[in-house]
């Protein structure tokens, strides 16, 4: 088991974007920061960072150290901050978890994987280019496809619907739980628990 992890939540900066679907990764990191009892502070790598220990390990010992990071740049240039943070904290891709919104998964579902394509997600594309590898872990938080003929780029920058907002808190808790299980028990265990289930 890795003794420490860099966990990055993707989104766009500023209050205009904070409640949009594209920022669900950063919402999950807010939940994780509450769990570790640490607030975010500015970091020179163009990110907000919080550090602490996540969960409780065997025998009641504190869980592994985590560095939670929210890039301060716009989504499509997330790679620079992520690569700089990985270098600063000496984390290789196997110790990097990226939490992000995923159009190809229905709202309120969570999937996890390592490597693979970016599915048209510009944040992932930029991270892959900056790191020079696709082999990092992803926690994919489902936001579903846009209704009708709405453009995907428009859809991800809109706030969640009223019905979705009712269910969003449980989705964020589940996604944070998925990160915790990924850190403590590994990818296969987290996949087995969270694939095919809905929030709650």
TrEMBL record:
Name the record gives this protein: Peptidyl-tRNA hydrolase
Reactions catalysed according to its record: an N-acyl-L-alpha-aminoacyl-tRNA + H2O = an N-acyl-L-amino acid + a tRNA + H(+)
UniProt site (Stabilizes the basic form of H active site to accept a proton): 101
Residue(s) at site: Discriminates between blocked and unblocked aminoacyl-tRNA: 12
Keywords: Cytoplasm, Hydrolase, RNA-binding, tRNA-binding
Location relative to the cell: Cytoplasm
GO molecular function: peptidyl-tRNA hydrolase activity
Complex and partners: Monomer.
InterPro entries, sorted: Pept_tRNA_hydro (IPR001328), Pept_tRNA_hydro_CS (IPR018171), Pept_tRNA_hydro_sf (IPR036416)
Membership in a protein family: Belongs to the PTH family.
Active site: 22
UniProt-listed HAMAP family: Pept_tRNA_hydro_bact (MF_00083)
EC number, as in UniProt: 3.1.1.29
Class in the EC hierarchy, top level: hydrolase
Binding residues annotated for tRNA, in chain numbering: 17, 74, 76, 122
Domain of life: Bacteria
Described purpose of this protein according to its UniProt entry: Hydrolyzes ribosome-free peptidyl-tRNAs (with 1 or more amino acids incorporated), which drop off the ribosome during protein synthesis, or as a result of ribosome stalling. Catalyzes the release of premature peptidyl moieties from peptidyl-tRNA molecules trapped in stalled 50S ribosomal subunits, and thus maintains levels of free tRNAs and 50S ribosomes.
